[in-house]
Design brief:
Layout (H helix, E strand, L loop, with lengths): L2 H28 L6 H9 L6 H9 L7 H11 L1
Helix pairs in contact: 1-2, 1-3
Length: 79
């Protein structure tokens, strides 16, 4: 996949995850159970007792690692 296509995909996925995190924060703030599959799955991945404020902060500071370490390791093994 080309660099620009990767960047576009990464931005899209980060936006999707950020929206899901904000939606989950709103649902938890209202005391409601997660409504859709994405928020339910996300809640299972998070530590017990996560607060809506922590979710909003995390949604704002999302980071992504693209697996470069694997490619570096493979290159070292080849050489």
């Amino acid at each position: 996949m080309r660099y620009r296509a990767q960047r576009r995909l990464i931005r899209q996925r980060k936006r999707e995850l950020s929206v899901t995190m904000y939606r989950l924060a709103q649902e938890l703030q209202a005391g409601a159970a997660p409504q859709d599959e994405a928020t339910q799955r996300l809640l299972k991945l998070l530590p017990e007792g996560v607060t809506p404020a922590e979710l909003r902060e995390s949604a704002h500071t999302l980071r992504l690692q693209r697996g470069l370490a694997d490619r570096v390791r493979d290159g070292v093994l080849r050489s």
